[in-house]
């Protein structure tokens, strides 16, 4: 297996789940390092510098949310939470805490692999930093020139209000990643508006009307029910 293939750190204490993920990831060419506890996982992340972390929340020594918090103190590595906790609030807490995505057990191999590819693409996009921003963003027939602050749909310029543009560029910076209502409200309107979810509904509807081919069936600005929104990756 090539050293150029992505290195995945799996932090999971359940042997059966580790065996399943080990076989699945190896078959797709991913390299894997495993940890059974949160402490071991943090140590492995420090020494191995993985490209992505798969993290269980129910670890024997500490909660996975604490692992996420500690990793986020120094690393922007993509974190996908794999958990039997399926309540909306659990997902919101994990995403607000710094996770990039959340999958509820049981899940299919295909779904996990798709989420993994999206997270790695998002990380590569973020790593390009200013170079990626200067090149702009394109998804389907929507193009955004971030340097000139110009938005096109099917080649025609679209006028966005300042708030609509700020909301769109916030989603672009995290393309492919689920952003919670709280995260979006905090970045676009400020922390004092963290509970004003109706603001998001109104402005997201306006953005969809201007950018989606069929606003009633959005393909670009995706709703994650009860959690937040995700911009389809470019």
TrEMBL record:
The keyword tRNA-binding does not apply. Residues 134-233 form the OmpR/PhoB-type domain. Keywords: Cytoplasm, DNA-binding, Phosphoprotein, Transcription, Transcription regulation, Two-component regulatory system. GO terms for molecular function: cis-regulatory region sequence-specific DNA binding; identical protein binding; phosphorelay response regulator activity. It holds the Pfam family Response_reg. Residues 7-120 form the Response regulatory domain. PANTHER family: KDP OPERON TRANSCRIPTIONAL REGULATORY PROTEIN KDPE, REGULATOR OF RPOS. This is Transcriptional regulator.
